[in-house]
Design goal:
This protein is an alpha+beta fold and about 170 residues long. The protein has helices spanning about 1-20, 165-169; strands at about 55-60, 65, 70-80, 85-90, 95-100, 105, 110-115, 120, 135-140, 160. The radius of gyration is 17 Å and the shape is globular.
Length: about 170
């Protein structure tokens, strides 16, 4: 019984510490600015088979370094159907920062990153093949944020997805 209580308290403390760490975010494409994405594309519909666009696309020259937008730990690198070459980083506030359509990946799972660390290069992999080079950048909260729910298409999913434009501007 004491072990369960200690584990519960430890988990709560760990969650609180994660929520208190500041994000200090940076734009995840070297030398990019807010002019390199359309801030109205977050939750834009219709957006292919996913219904709505749950992130922003940041455009640039193929091969441009893609940077971690915040400090964190790499929780996934690899290939996914629509996303092509992808990297997922667990950052402060228990948020997953997802980078898709990379040309190359330069980090591996478990790597500790700081904001601005190179994670790969800009590309057109996955369902972006043949389109202008860009990354799809999403922020997914592991802790639901219920006041973000809307009546839009898939609006209930907004409890998990944050608008990257609002975080980067």
């Amino acid at each position: 019984m004491k072990k369960i209580k200690i584990l519960s308290i430890s988990a709560i403390v760990l969650i609180i510490i994660g929520l208190l760490i500041p994000e200090n975010m940076t734009i995840p494409v070297r030398n990019a600015s807010a002019k390199d994405w359309n801030h109205k594309t977050f939750w834009f519909e219709p957006w292919g088979s996913s219904g709505v666009h749950k992130g922003i696309d940041i455009f640039g020259k193929k091969g441009t370094p893609v940077l971690s937008s915040t400090k964190g730990v790499v929780v996934y690198t690899g290939t996914m159907g629509k996303g092509g070459n992808v990297v997922a980083v667990l950052g402060p506030k228990w948020r997953i920062h997802y980078y898709a359509h990379l040309e190359s990946i330069s980090v591996s799972g478990g790597a500790l990153l700081w904001s601005g660390a190179a994670i790969g290069t800009l590309g057109d992999s996955g369902n972006a093949l043949g389109k202008p080079p860009h990354i799809h950048y999403s922020i997914f909260s592991l802790i639901p944020i219920p006041w973000l729910i809307t009546t839009e298409t898939q609006g209930w999913k907004k409890v998990f997805f944050l608008n990257p434009h609002e975080k980067l501007k």
